[in-house]
Design brief:
Radius of gyration: 26 Å
Helix content: 25-40%
Distance between the termini: 54 Å
Organism: Plicaturopsis crispa FD-325 SS-3
Number of helices: 16
Strand order of the largest sheet: 1-2-3-4-5-6-7-9-11-12-13-14-15-18
Largest sheet: 14 strands, parallel
Number of strands: 18
Oligomer: single chain
Number of domains: 3
Structural class: alpha/beta
Protein name: F-box domain-containing protein
Length: about 525
């Protein structure tokens, strides 16, 4: 038996290679429990594996304070990644657990590379931030603070003060239901703010400006939920008196649960000449008293001097497209003029909104609108509402298909590049092909259309369409996205949308999104509305 083991490839593998395998496997998982379980498992396989694992300082640099301090000693002088989760098994010893955990890791704050803390409520988070207020973290690069469930009775809490003595290497901040003072973050390149509550803890307009204005080096910015309190502030654009300058910003995501005007105000306030990707998501908007589309008007105000001259990928989800009949259609034209470099558009709105855009593209213009457009993703759903045009409805989708076909023909006649891909959500495809009404089909057998120039060979998919989309296929490939991985719950409207939007955005070279699955778009438990991915949602 011993001779057989000695002849096995693993047994004869050099210690350095075995150590590299352990290190790569350990770093491949971002979940705390998986990392802890992995290093515990490999250290119990054999005496040799145990010796190799103990010799790897990086393997023991990920510290969950509930674990023995022995792991800190094994990490030697390697930078530490601290993960403090107080949301599991909370009981009467909750506060004791927080203090004991902090006592075990605070002496090593000079070695922290990442600090991640999750609490059930804001009181517990305050207990953590209070002890971090006047510390120095010279190696800290990533900071995540997450309050799982925020109750209005918990607040209001003032913005936290952290690492007042300095955190010069801090690059990434993720805050869920907690705000920080501006002095902490001048060097941050990645910032994510998520507020899922609607209490008194939202930032004032001036605090918000002060906070973001201090981060001129930010590259990736996500603003989600009720971050700014809007009750006593008018959000229309004549009242925007300041501009947020982000010279290095490349990716901006803005989400709002109930107010489109907040996202419109943000779009109008931000000046980002290097911005490549912009996504605006409005969920369950209850603002029906506007006589113009707020977000589109925010773009149109700066049509003559675009604030996003480099923008290549735009996602509009739930954003109102069709203006009131009393509003001039120049709003749509100016919106397009404000985005001269656009190559990818992901649109989730009503069919009336889509037709309004196509009609605007056909209207005579002094200069071509969206001349560089290469990819178009159309998503639909019953919750997207626009002002309906006067006249009989086009329930069979005939008008949209015809207008879109005319747009493609018009672009070809004008010498513009043809679209590389037209991505149709199943509901949109069903709408324009009248798939839900068999009696309206032009023929019994649907034609199978196999794509494709944009997807890999193993991702090709068949799209069944009737003759109504033949004219579209003559100018562009009609594509349906392949099925998403099983881990995404696509029965949840939000997850399906985020997955598809991420998929399309990642197809564009140069956007710089991580991965190609769109997983980073999945809202998880942070969205400010009920979601199938939300625990208990």
């Amino acid at each position: 038996m011993q001779a057989a083991r000695m002849k096995s490839p693993v047994a004869s593998m050099p210690t350095e290679i075995l150590g590299d395998i352990f290190d790569i496997a350990f770093r491949s998982s971002s979940e705390a429990r998986s990392r802890v379980a992995f290093r515990a498992a490999i250290s119990q396989v054999s005496r040799r594996w145990r010796d190799v694992s103990f010799s790897l300082a990086s393997l023991w640099s990920f510290i969950a304070p509930s674990i023995s301090r022995t792991h800190i000693l094994r990490s030697k002088n390697h930078p530490l990644d601290i993960f403090l989760d107080t949301t599991v098994g909370c009981d009467s010893s909750h506060w004791w657990h927080i203090n004991v955990s902090l006592d075990s890791v605070l002496p090593y704050v000079s070695r922290w590379r990442e600090f991640h803390a999750e609490t059930v409520d804001a009181y517990a988070m305050c207990a953590i931030t209070t002890r971090l207020a006047y510390l120095s973290a010279p190696l800290l690069e990533r900071l995540t603070l997450r309050v799982k469930r925020y109750w209005e009775a918990d607040g209001p809490f003032p913005p936290a003060i952290l690492f007042k003595r300095g955190a010069p290497r801090l690059e990434s901040i993720r805050l869920h239901n907690i705000s920080l003072r501006a002095s902490l973050v001048p060097s941050v390149t990645h910032l994510e703010l998520r507020f899922t509550h609607f209490g008194d803890d939202a930032l004032t307009v001036m605090d918000f400006f002060s906070f973001l204005s201090s981060m001129r080096s930010v590259v990736d910015l996500t603003l989600d939920g009720s971050i700014v309190e809007t009750e006593n502030y008018v959000w229309s654009f004549p009242h925007v008196v300041k501009t947020l300058h982000f010279p290095y910003l490349q990716r901006l995501i803005a989400r709002s649960a109930y107010t489109e005007s907040w996202c419109a105000w943000l779009v109008g306030a931000v000046h980002a000449p290097a911005l490549l990707f912009l996504a605006v998501h409005i969920f369950n908007s209850d603002e029906d008293d506007y006589d113009f589309p707020p977000v589109l008007r925010a773009f149109s105000v700066f049509a003559s001097a675009p604030r996003y001259p480099s923008l290549r990928s735009l996602t509009l989800d739930g954003v109102r497209i069709v203006p009131d009949p009393a509003t001039p259609t120049s709003v749509l034209r100016d919106f397009m003029r404000a985005l001269p470099s656009l190559t990818t558009l992901c649109l989730a709105c009503s069919d009336h909104g889509r037709v309004a855009l196509w009609t605007t593209l056909l209207a005579p213009a002094a200069e071509p609108l969206w001349p560089r457009l290469q990819r178009l993703c159309l998503l639909g759903g019953p919750r997207y509402t626009d002002y309906e045009p006067i006249g009989p409805p086009d329930d069979d989708g005939t008008r949209e298909c015809d207008v879109l076909a005319n747009v493609l023909q018009h672009r070809a006649a004008a010498g513009m590049e043809p679209l590389r891909a037209l991505h149709l959500d199943p509901s949109v495809l069903q709408h324009i092909t009248r798939a839900s009404s068999p009696e309206h089909r032009d023929h019994d057998e649907s034609e199978a259309v196999v794509h494709d120039a944009c997807l890999d060979a193993d991702e090709r998919t068949a799209v069944y369409a009737d003759r109504r989309v033949d004219v579209l296929r003559s100018h562009v490939a009609v594509v349906l996205e392949p099925d998403a991985p099983a881990r995404y719950d696509l029965k949840c409207r939000a997850c399906a949308l985020f997955w598809t939007a991420g998929r399309v955005a990642c197809m564009f070279e140069g956007v710089g999104l991580e991965g190609s699955t769109g997983k980073e778009y999945c809202p998880g438990d942070a969205m400010p509305y009920s979601c199938a991915c939300t625990p208990g949602g």
